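Sat 14:20. Reprocessing the chain from the morning session after the first attempt stalled halfway. Input below, unchanged.
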Amino acid sequence: MAHPAIRRALAALLPAGLGTMAATLPLLPATAGPTDTPAGKGAQVYCFMRGAGNNHEVSWAAAYSLIKRQSASLFKTSPEHAAVMITEAVVQNPGTFPDCGRYLGSLFERAATPPDAAASPAAGSTPSTQGSSPTRIPTSGVTRNDRYNY
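Finished this time. Tokens:
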């Protein structure tokens, strides 16, 4: 509750109608709700879409796009950081995002498991040709001096 002297000073400084209204308002800063931050909005989108039956890829693409667009940072938010932001928003506000905890593991599965292409040999390859020599990268014949000559 505001001090009576502060209320009287505000009432004297402000016009009559605003002074009485200002005297009844608490002098506390407004706090952001759990879905008012980019992380909270991303968590809301991700959890809603997963709960509606969408798969991880679609839900993640929508949530990550929203986080990148809403963030006020000079640098782009990395996918790893966005996943952590969504996880923190859900864990800090479980009542706002009910039943979303079961989907959080999907945010980190890709980083924990190796890609399928690296784990299995390529189609049509045989053990004798696999790993025998490095793959040659074709060159175009362009030199450093020709790089910006269009």
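Helices lie at 4-13, 16-24, 38-51, 56-70, 79-92, 106-112, 116-119.
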